[in-house]
Design a protein that fits this description.
By secondary structure, the protein is mainly α. The chain has a domain at about 30-155: Up-down Bundle (Butyryl-CoA Dehydrogenase, subunit A, domain 3), CATH 1.20.140.70. About 65% of the residues lie in helices and about 5% in strands. It has 28 helices and seven strands. It has helices at about 15, 35-55, 65-95, 100-115, 120-125, 130-135, 140-145, 145-155, 165-170, 175-190, 205-210, 220-235, 235-255, 265-270, 275-285, 290-300, 325-340, 345-355, 390-410, 420-445, 445-465, 465-480, 490-505, 525, 530-550, 555-565, 570-575, 585-609, and strands spanning about 195, 200-205, 310, 360, 370-375, 380-385, 510. Strands 4-6-5 form a three-stranded mixed sheet, with helices on both faces. A two-stranded antiparallel ribbon has the order 1-2. Helix 3 (about 65-95) packs antiparallel against helix 4 and helix 18 (about 345-355) packs across helix 19 (about 390-410). It is globular, with a radius of gyration of 24 Å.
């Protein structure tokens, strides 16, 4: 998943971009009213009921091979439900303002939840099996296949509630958290921003107006920024209510489950220790002055000012090439970069372009930003982009294709073990970006263009590391304060401005409307504390890429093996073949030093020009 509405260029003509692909979801289901979807739904319901009738209150007494058979049946049902929800969510993402898509998405959520109540017993009973008893069962090779999934499922044992409470939480989810998330999505998708452009005023979607924030014309950037702040401010009341409600909902459940901190449940789902995340956050925050503060002061000097207005933070450099990159050229660039590293990696990537697995055009109502949806191993991933022909759009394509390739390769592990923790899920995407950046840098026609590209890469890395840790810090402060009572809009805005000032430094000047920019960030709503995974992944890839640059033959094979492992291995096991250890505090400094080194290189280049 690419970070939140990453800046791209203003809307350009379809002719300039070339033929942009749109996805075809028939590989999931032919349509909302298709006989195939109805049949899959009914089959899954009957299978779930049969599984409950056959195995409820009996799992602990099953022999290893029989328990493996039961898990296989459970996996088949769960994969069908995953396919159904993937279909509904992708239809919804294509146009969040279309009422029928919204209704279908909600209906599918309710249907899948109803069927899932018959499966709930399965995980709860597995977690009640004594460790010694389970160890005996795992001696059977059939069950040993599922050992990683059992390990991860049982990691939540200390936080499991009574069966009746777990069932209540599951059944209420669609009318609770899921409903508030849907309200956020539909509210954001419905917003329209009026911007005064040189050729007249234009009404835009959120994806389009954020793209203007990296336009060459400073007046356009300012107009877009002011419009964004104004519209978000006008709608801040509903976003404040959503934020308060979801934070309180999380606090209540965390207390029942006995999680020590608001972030602890996320860390457990990522299978990373609290202290490892704390070390990452502390390392990045300690580097604010030498990374973001230093870079933005340098950028301000390029613009001939002491401070940059916030709308100039992602502004193109004065000598930046503003050409429009056709889709076909973007595809050639990304696949060429992948192929230079590993022909096999490129071969998997080509499948996304040879088939209808990508939705690239900007459309009203479409989900902003970009993501890769893994769907299920029996199908294939889909990529959503909002491609508008800028270098950053090419990098976004490289990022999401990295996710997609990872998801394809990990599919061999099966539905229950293909998914990786979020911290490791960003590895392939950020590595893909790095491969593409290096190719673009090598192909740059002049030293001046190399300087511009290096600055752009540093900005992207600051957005991925510094900015995401600032987002994490914002979330942490909001959730901590929410424990003391409901937060007013102005109080949330104050927290936002505190962390923005700390992270971006004195070279960035803010204005009043920027106080409301926290409202548009979907990760705060969809996946609390997700954002540190970007910094984790970027620092990890920086260290990994350093190993690659100095490695002998064989690195690519080890890298592909890491991707194929999916969720079967934890971060220590995955990184061990490369001589890396994320639990070592020096690991984070090593990753951050790569960014600092690029900044040193840029300063040296700047002195020579």
């Amino acid at each position: 998943m690419k970070q939140l509405l990453a800046p791209a260029r203003a809307t350009v003509s379809a002719k300039a971009l070339g033929d942009l692909p749109e996805w075809n979801l028939d590989d999931l289901f032919p349509g909302r009213d298709s006989a195939e979807l109805a049949a899959a739904t009914e089959k899954a319901r009957k299978q779930a009921q049969a599984l409950e009738a056959s195995y409820k209150d009996k799992l602990a007494g099953l022999k290893g091979a029989v328990l493996a058979k039961a898990i296989g049946e459970y996996e088949e049902i769960d994969e069908t439900l995953g396919r159904m929800m993937s279909f509904a969510s992708l239809l919804y993402a294509a146009d969040m303002t279309e009422p029928e898509s919204g209704r279908f998405y909600q209906t599918m959520q309710e249907t899948v939840t109803e069927i899932s109540t018959h499966l709930l017993f399965f995980g709860l009973e597995l977690n009640k099996i004594d460790d010694a008893v389970l160890a005996e069962k795992l001696a059977d090779p059939a069950l040993a296949k599922y050992e990683p999934w059992l390990r991860d499922t049982r990691a939540f044992r200390p936080h499991q509630l009574d069966d009746s409470i777990e069932r209540l939480l599951l059944e209420k989810h669609v009318a609770g958290k899921a409903a508030w998330v849907r309200l956020f999505d539909e509210s954001m998708a419905a917003l329209r921003f009026k911007v005064a452009l040189p050729h007249g005023e234009k009404e835009m979607t959120s994806a389009e107006v954020f793209n203007l924030m990296s336009e060459q014309d400073g007046k356009v950037r300012k107009a877009a920024a002011k419009s964004i702040g104004e519209v978000l401010g006008e709608n801040a009341r509903v976003f404040t209510l959503i934020t308060n409600t979801l934070a309180k909902d999380k606090e209540i459940e965390d207390k029942w489950r006995k999680f020590a901190q608001p972030v602890s449940s996320r860390n457990l789902s990522n299978f990373v220790e609290d202290e490892v995340v704390d070390a990452l956050v502390a390392a990045v925050k300690s580097m604010y002055p030498s990374l973001s503060h230093r870079y933005y002061a340098l950028k301000a000097s390029w613009f001939g000012v002491d401070q940059l207005d916030y709308w100039d933070r992602n502004a193109p450099l004065p000598d930046e090439d503003e050409r429009t990159i056709k889709w076909s050229d973007a595809v050639d660039t990304v696949l060429g970069a992948y192929g230079r590293f590993s022909p096999q990696l490129a071969e998997v990537g080509e499948k996304f372009f040879d088939n209808d697995w990508i939705d690239a055009p900007v459309r009203p109502g479409k989900s902003p930003g970009a993501f890769a949806h893994p769907t299920v191993p029996s199908a294939h991933p889909y990529l959503l982009l909002n491609y508008q022909g800028k270098t950053r759009d090419v990098m976004t394509l490289a990022h999401e294709l990295g996710h997609g390739v990872h998801q394809v390769l990990a599919g061999v592990q099966g539905h229950l073990m293909a998914d990786t923790p979020l911290t490791l899920a960003e590895t392939a995407s950020v590595f893909g970006e790095m491969l593409t950046f290096r190719k673009l840098l090598d192909d740059a026609p002049s030293p001046a263009q190399k300087r511009v590209m290096l600055a752009g890469k540093i900005e992207d890395m600051l957005n991925t590391v510094v900015r995401q840790i600032a987002f994490f810090e914002f979330e942490r402060r909001v959730h901590d304060r929410r424990g003391e009572g409901e937060l007013l809009t102005e109080e949330i805005c104050d927290i936002w401005m505190e962390v923005q000032g700390e992270s971006l430094g004195p070279a960035i000047r803010f204005e009043g409307e920027y106080r409301y920019y926290w409202t548009y960030i979907p990760h705060f709503i969809h996946s609390p504390f997700y954002v540190y995974a970007y910094a984790f992944g970027d620092c990890l890839v920086n260290s990994l890429y350093a190993v690659y640059q100095g490695a002998a033959d064989g690195f690519a094979e080890k890298y592909l093996d890491m991707l194929r492992a999916g969720g079967t291995l934890r971060h220590k096991e995955l990184l061990a073949p490369f001589g890396l250890d994320a639990s070592d505090p020096a690991f984070w400094q090593q990753g951050l030093s790569v960014i600092s080194g690029l900044l040193d290189e840029l300063v040296e280049m700047d002195a020579e020009t």
